[in-house]
Structure formats: C-alpha cells, structure tokens
Amino acid sequence: MIKITSPQNNQIKLLQKLSAKKYRQELRQFTVENLAIILDALKDGFDFVALFATEEFVAKHPDQFKYLQDNSKAKDFYLIDSKINKHYSNLDTPSGITAVYNITERALDKSSVIYLNGISDPGNLGTIMRSALAFNFTNLVLDENCVDVYNPKVVSAAKDAIFKLNIIEAKSALWLKHQKLPIYTTSSHVGVNLARFKPAKAFCLVLGSESHGVSPEIERLATKSLKIAMSKKIESLNVATAAAILLYELGQK
Fold it and tell me: Would you say residue 137 lies in a domain?
C-alpha cells in the first residue's frame, strides 16, 4: 500500500474532482464510500480501479479489507489518515473507505425500459434503481433533466444497482420517438387502472419529475396512461413509491 500524508497529493485532488458532475463526466469515473456496496460489487465481478482506506478503517475491518486486496485486480491501494478522508469525502461522517470505479455504459437489451423524465431527487433516483433491479427490469434511460446517476447520494441510495443496470443518458425525448416499444406514462388521476391493465411483453415505462410529472411532449407520445387506484384522501404518491408499485405490478403480468 502507498501511504498518502498530504491533501495536496494528486490522488486526493482526483477524489475531490470526482465530487463534481463535470469531472465525473470528463474522467469517466465515480466514487463509492460504502464498504457493503464495494464488497457486494466485487463479489459480483464489478472491480474498482483504486482504493483508499484510513488506518482506523483497516484496523477495524481487517478481514473485509484483506478480501478486497486478495480479490481485486486493482494495483492502486492507498493508506490515508482521517483528516485527509474528511478533506475529500462527500459524507458528513466519512466511512474511512473510498473506491474509484470507471464508468462503463452498457447497451440496453431487448427487454422493457424505464425512462426517467426529470427525476431530480438523488434519493428517489437511487430508490427507483433498486426497485427496478428487484423486479427484474434491467434497462434504464435518463433524460438530461435528471440528477446525475453517479452523484454520490444517488450511488448511496442505489447501492449495487448502480453496477447491475444497463444505464444510458438521453439528450431529449427524441430517444422515445426512435424506439418501437409501446410507451406507458403515469398519472395520479386519469388513465387505465393499473390493476386491470395487461402490458405488452416489452414496453417503455415513463416516470415523471417529482414536481411536474411527465412532460407534455412525452405525454403526446404515450400509447397508454396508467393510474394507481388509491384513496381520495391523498393527492399523489412519491415518485419512488409509485415506481415500486408500477414495476411490481407490471413485472407480474
């Protein structure tokens, strides 16, 4: 292991840069500061390219750290102190470990697609990703109005789903116009009752922004609008909650 003692070290400067979307896109890398996610990813074949750990972390988790060293093909392991960890960490209380991953875009397969239109909350996006993985949806398209999928808060909420989904970013709704799947949008009050709806074998489900729902441009492209039957005592559901219900129901049919 290489010991780093200065926050001005180039590797630490790299970690600081990766806190910003601009540099994540430019360098095609992102970070994970969660031991469970790093371990689960490695066990499933998703390896990091560099690992940073504090002396306290190594002393507290000797078995897990040894597993990472023994099973990763990465050559760059760095030992840091807690002050340096705080210097670059995206967490209020740094975890003591940071893994750097390359961003690799995998093409969509021929199954159904989830299209996200302006999902701006990192927690909602991460939760939708976990629900997609849980209910066997593997294709995710994000439009330009969504929060960055490699934002640290998204990664924290998405956990290992960040590695296991086919994720692409679309510049506009033009992507929807050029694919042949039926398009299903969602609404709180109008549309076909989800419980009685029979979907196509493969389809594109659009989930709209927390504030405005699905954009009018995309609504005009929709084959069907779906609604979740619910009590009149509540106006609408959180988009991540609605997504879980929709994906579960559509995945069962």
Answer: yes
CA distance 96 to 90: 12
- Residues 117-173: pLDDT tens digits? 999 999 999 999 999 999 999 999 999 999 999 999 999 999 999 999 999 999 878
Task: Give how far Cα 7 sits from Cα of 173, 192, 196, Å.
Answer: 43, 57, 59
CA distance 140 to 244: 14
Contacts of 139 (CB under 8 A, 6+ apart): 108, 109, 111, 112, 113, 114, 165, 166
Looking at 102, 122, 156, the residue that finishes a domain is 102
Residue 36 lies in a domain: yes
Domain that holds residue 203: 113-252
62-71 helix and 35-43 helix, angle to the nearest 10 degrees: 40
Instruction: Give the Cα separation of 213 and 94 in Å (integer).
Output: 35
Domain contains 245: yes
pLDDT at 235: 78
Specify whether the CB–CB gap between 182 and 206 falls below 8 A.
no
Pick from 152, 150, 12, 38: nearest CA to 91: 152
Of the residues 83, 102, 121, the one at which a domain ends: 102
In a domain, 108, yes or no: no
- CB contact set of 30 (below 8 Å; sequence gap of 6+): 18, 24, 100, 101, 103, 150, 152, 155
